[in-house]
Write a structure and sequence with these properties.
The protein is mainly α and 110 residues long. The protein has a domain at 32-77: Arc Repressor Mutant, subunit A (Orthogonal Bundle). The chain contains six helices and no strands. α2 crosses α4 (60-77) and α3 packs across α4 (60-77). The radius of gyration is 29 Å and the shape is flat. It starts with a helix and ends in a 10-residue tail after the last helix.
Amino acid sequence: MKKTLALVASLAVATALSLQFGLSKAYAASHKKVDCAEVMTELQGGKKVAEVAKDMKISKSSVYSCRKKAKAAAAMASPAAMASPAEMGSPAAMASPAAMAPPAAAPAAH
């Protein structure tokens, strides 16, 4: 009984591994790297997602992915996103409005 169970388990593992390696090679051969800069140039030129996908021979989901990455990069480059969480929790960021007043507005010490 134990030998039969071990044999069946071995065959199942061997089958799973052979399928895994066979599928990954087929996928890797058909997988094409997408030039997101070119995709964004086409979209900014006024083309529709379907047109860009057809012209570049890529999927529409790849075009949407490039657009999502470009939006994320733009959000990171905006001034509002430049403050890191460490800066937001720093004592300078948490100071009272009086402490944030410019030096000219502070009373002069004699």
